[in-house]
Design a protein that fits this description.
alpha+beta
Length: about 350
């Protein structure tokens, strides 16, 4: 029978512990987080999580390449494409598009972070593990750590799987282009900037620097997490040389600091932005600086700190995600948070 993770080192790695101590205030806070970790972090998925993954029409996946760059990806198929043969196993019955960075990282033993997100209910569960098998139609994941997340900051919108040439209309009659026709760029174009500055959602993948080591522990893996805010919460800046950077607020969360803990040790991340109107995916490789305090933090309502992310590479894949989305409803907890820019796309307020 799978057990809860039990020792302090198995709850949180050194980077997470350091951020918890910095933000929460020392040894007493760390002791409280150890107690919380003992209750919340499992080396298996409970039955409700196993059933939840099987209901999803898409799955967010974090991976890391040979150079240590994390990547965030999305896989989609009709609900049921993810199954759980056992409490420590997920079977994913779809493979990434060749233009998706995950396509290059899938191999038996490769570390992955997983995020199951049901946007219309704001429910989400996270896990990490390693690829246990790889076949012509999908792959398996051996789960090392599993835990639930709160629904904060998620814009509720219902996704629908929409294969080409179906009742959803002619707009879906095309598919993503061949990988050879999608190039990596060092900057952003106008369409990218528009998507970024209107976004209310993105996904961020980070990694412990030892995630791919054979001796890595359950805490030293790849993670992928959701970030949400009002439309306009992502600020785009460019210097005189055309190098782009993004600045986003970091709001109060569960105090696990999985993302910040990884960034504390390895300041690189992979970002994924979804164009909910047409299924485009924008992949970004970024270097991250954490702005812990100062006037800029105080100026953004609700921000506890900021992430400033220099764009290293970008790739936009048209129509990569075979999903279409219903109208969005803003999370009620975002009402008192700010934006960098006047909103350019309206959410229907809860």
């Amino acid at each position: 029978m799978a057990e809860f993770l039990s020792s302090r080192d198995e709850h949180f790695h050194a980077g997470e512990c350091a951020v918890q101590a910095h933000v929460l205030g020392g040894a007493d806070a760390r002791a409280r987080m150890t107690a919380v970790g003992r209750l919340a972090l499992r080396d298996h998925m409970p039955d409700q999580h196993r059933a939840f993954f099987a209901q999803l029409p898409f799955l967010l996946v974090g991976s890391v390449d040979a150079a240590g760059q994390p990547w965030a990806s999305a896989l989609a198929a009709p609900p049921g494409f993810v199954t759980s043969p056992g409490p420590q196993h997920l079977a994913v019955n779809v493979l990434p598009h060749p233009a998706d960075p995950l396509h290059q990282q899938l191999a038996v033993g490769a570390p992955l972070g997983l995020l199951g997100l049901q946007p219309h209910t704001r429910r989400r569960n996270r896990a990490n593990g390693v690829v246990s098998q790889l076949g012509p139609a999908g792959f398996g994941v051996r789960i090392h750590m599993s835990f639930g997340n709160c629904p904060k900051y998620i814009a509720a919108r219902e996704p629908y799987y929409a294969p080409p040439n179906n009742a959803f209309g002619d707009a879906l009659a095309h598919t993503a282009p061949p990988a050879a026709q999608v190039t990596w760029r060092s900057g952003l174009d106008d369409a990218d900037r528009s998507l970024l500055t209107q976004a209310d959602t993105f996904f961020i993948a980070t990694t412990h620097p030892d995630a791919a080591a054979p001796s890595s522990s359950a805490t030293q893996g790849v993670d992928i997490s959701h970030r949400g805010g009002k439309s306009g919460f992502v600020r785009v800046d460019e210097n005189a040389l055309g190098q782009a950077s993004l600045t986003v607020p970091d709001f109060t969360g569960n105090f696990f600091f999985n993302t910040l803990g990884n960034l504390n040790l390895h300041p690189f991340a992979g970002l994924l932005f979804i164009d909910f109107a047409n299924g485009d995916l924008l992949y970004l490789a970024v270097k991250v600086d954490i702005v812990w305090e100062g006037a800029e933090v105080r100026a953004f309502s609700g921000a506890q700190r900021l992430l400033r992310m220099t764009v290293l590479r970008s790739r936009r894949v048209p129509a990569a995600l075979p999903l279409r989305w219903g109208p969005a409803t803003m999370s009620p907890v975002l009402a008192d948070t700010g934006t960098w820019l006047p909103p350019q796309s309206a959410l229907v307020n809860s």
